[in-house]
Amino acid sequence: MYTVGEMLREWRHRRRLSQLDLAIAADVSARHVSLVETGRSRPSTDMILRLADQLDIPLRDRNQLLLAAGFAPRYTQRPLEDDALAAAREAIGRVLRAHEPYPALVVDRRWNILMTNRAVDQFFADVDPELLEPPVNLVRLGLHPRGLAPLVVNLADVRAVFRARVRRQLAVVADPELTRLYEEVLAPGGRDEEAGSLALEADVVIPMTLRVDGRELNLFSTITTFGTPMDITLDEVAIESYYPADDASAAYFADR
């Protein structure tokens, strides 16, 4: 089992910071950072959270740091349906509804879909019902031949975008379930990877092109997260909002 100092050092290496960089950001001495990392100084709860904040460590992993140091966890984790998260859930619902007629959905850290707006329904109409049994995974659904893949014109590009995003997640935090998803759906190979990589290098934003009702719709997405969550669930949810990338695509949604 790792000590809190070893865990902080690992996070610092992941963020590619020196002890001096972290010390300046956290307003402590580099010597103190060194003492904490080597176990010669036992950090307080406040010190752990200060360093974790500067290292942008997810709340789930901050709890692990506190436990390793002998302290109680600071952050709770409740289902999004919990009464305690009613205000946050309503805020998310408002964002989803306000985005209509364009599609938007909410995913957790493993890309499981938690909520959608009504504009998403039309895209799920021809999906195999088995893929819509909870938990519905956006990556698997989007790339599966019985899911949304038949609608996606530039499937190699979309796969490359998902691959890059999941790789970044795994580079920050090892997650066995997310690793299995990557190996199942996103493992690179052949022309698919090459074509997607070329497109990613050539453009600033890679649109997703869908063929729907005999028309091609070009969409790009943005991600919204909670700014200062105190609950692990809220820390890990993201709202994926899709926008038309051209006038013809915008006109399609305006007519819905």
Structural write-up:
By secondary structure, the chain is an alpha+beta fold. It has two domains: about 5-70, lambda repressor-like DNA-binding domains (434 Repressor (Amino-terminal Domain)), CATH 1.10.260; about 85-155 and about 200-255, Beta-Lactamase (2-Layer Sandwich), CATH 3.30.450.180. The chain is built from 13 helices and five strands. The chain has a five-stranded antiparallel beta sheet with strand order 2-1-5-4-3. Helix 1 (about 5-15) crosses helix 3 (about 30-40), helix 9 (about 155-170) packs antiparallel against helix 10 (about 175-185) and helix 9 (about 155-170) packs across helix 11 (about 190-200). It is elongated. The mean pLDDT is about 90.
The amount of beta strand, in percent, is 5-15%
The number of distinct helices, counting runs of at least 4 residues, comes to 13
Oligomeric assembly: single chain
* Largest sheet strand order: 2-1-5-4-3
Could you tell me the number of beta strands? 5
- Would you tell me which CATH topology of the largest domain applies? Beta-Lactamase
The 3D shape can be described as: elongated
Can you tell me the number of structural domains? 2
State the CATH class of the largest domain: Alpha Beta
Decide which structural class fits the backbone.
Answer: alpha+beta
Report the mean per-residue pLDDT as an integer: 92
Give the second-level CATH assignment, the architecture of the largest domain. Answer: 2-Layer Sandwich
Over the alpha carbons, how many angstroms does the gyration radius reach? Answer: 21 Å
Largest sheet: 5 strands, antiparallel
Report the end-to-end length measured between terminal Cα atoms.
56 Å
Summarize the amount of helix as a percent range: 40-55%
**What order do the helices and strands follow?**
HHHHHHEEHHHHHEEHEH
Low-confidence stretches: none
